[in-house]
Design goal:
The chain is α/β, with parallel strands linked by helices. The protein has a single domain (4-238), classed as Rossmann fold (3-Layer(aba) Sandwich). Helix content is 43%, strand content 15%. The chain has helices at residues 13-24, 36-50, 64-72, 102-130, 151-171, 190-194, 199-204, 214-224; strands at 4-7, 28-33, 54-58, 83-86, 133-138, 176-183, 235-238. A 7-stranded parallel beta sheet has the order 3-2-1-4-5-6-7, sandwiched between helices. It is globular and about 50 Å long. It starts with a strand and ends in a 14-residue tail after the last strand. The structure holds NADPH dihydro-nicotinamide-adenine-dinucleotide phosphate and 2-hydroxyethylsulfonic acid (8X3). Residues 91, 140-142, 153, 185, 190, 246 line the site of 2-hydroxyethylsulfonic acid (8X3).
């Protein structure tokens, strides 16, 4: 059965791979991100390659107004969202707390925590009304373990873990599945964003071991949506084989 899948942050990394995975399996997609050119390119690629319906929506998840307009502006058919993947997020900066940049904190908390909440607040009533749906929140190993200089990024991902649990409790009586997926190190645009465009520093994070790919994470997201109606994966920690904990990576 064709599902409507809403993916935030589909212009790069996990979100783009998740969009390709669901499109390859024939599903209809709402894809979002702030970079309109990339969003439109992806929509065109998915429609051409997989002959699926794709609705690109360019907005910033940090804006409650933009989120509200994006969701309430959907046609009645597109409002039948079966799966919401709250993926948009980022780390910015890696400093000790007494030297951190306040604006980096604002960006992480506003995107990773408040943006995810805004999306959930607007989409979950549509699922409640239909008595079905699946919300998948992309957390991180950084939401399970705190590492040096990770204070606010880790805090934002611990919040995602807690919010996911709370969402599941509140929506359990409405037949809505809620899943937390917490990946370890994956080579996407993530470190480039964290290090503010310093490619050498970003690449060095992944030297000497095989990190996860965006496709590995997309496979996990897709898998949790394929289980029988009575089965839900609550929480999945997905790591590179070479990574044993947030800070323990075996580099050969
Ligand atoms: P990327 O930087 O490759 O992709 C991030 C995506 O989020 C982009 O599509 C970006 O789109 C979007 N995004 C960022 N800010 C906003 C915003 N304010 N509004 C709308 N969209 C936004 O990173 P990843 O794919 O690696 O990360 C995806 C998620 O996975 C994040 O939540 C991240 O924290 C998490 N994660 C990443 C890991 C990793 O090692 N890579 C490991 C564990 C978790 P645009 O810039 O066009 O807005
Ligand atoms: C991204 C993984 O631990 O490198 O969430 O910050 S980590």
């Amino acid at each position: 059965m064709t599902k409507i899948v809403f993916i935030t942050g589909a212009t790069a990394g996990f979100g783009m791979a998740i969009a390709r995975k669901f499109a390859a399996n024939g599903h209809s997609l709402i894809i979002t991100g702030r970079r309109k050119v990339l969003l439109d390119e992806l929509a065109k690629e998915l429609i051409t390659t997989f002959n699926v319906e794709v609705f690109p929506l360019c907005f910033d998840v940090r804006s409650l107004k933009a989120v509200g307009e994006a969701i309430t502006g959907l046609t009645e058919r597109w409002k039948n969202i079966d799966i919401l993947v709250n993926n948009a997020g980022l780390a910015v900066g890696l400093n000790q707390i007494h030297e951190a940049v306040i604006d980096d904190w604002e960006r992480m908390i506003d995107t990773n925590v408040k943006g995810l909440l805004y999306m959930t607040r607007y989409v979950s009533p549509l699922m409640v009304a239909r008595k079905q749906g699946h919300i998948i929140n992309i957390g991180s190993i950084a939401g399970k373990e705190v590492y040096p200089m990770g204070h606010v990024y880790c805090g934002s991902k611990f919040a995602v873990d807690a919010i996911t649990k709370g969402t599941r409790i509140d929506l359990v009586s409405h037949n809505i599945k809620v899943t937390h997926i917490a990946p370890g190190a994956a080579n996407t645009e993530f470190s480039l964003v964290r290090f503010k465009g310093d490619k050498n520093r970003a690449d060095s994070v992944y030297n000497g071991f095989q990190p996860l790919t965006a496709e590995d994470v997309a496979d996990a997201v897709f898998y949790v949506t394929t289980l029988p109606a009575h089965v839900n994966i609550n929480d999945m920690v997905l790591m590179p084989t070479a990574q044993a904990s947030a800070v323990n990576i075996h580099k050969g």
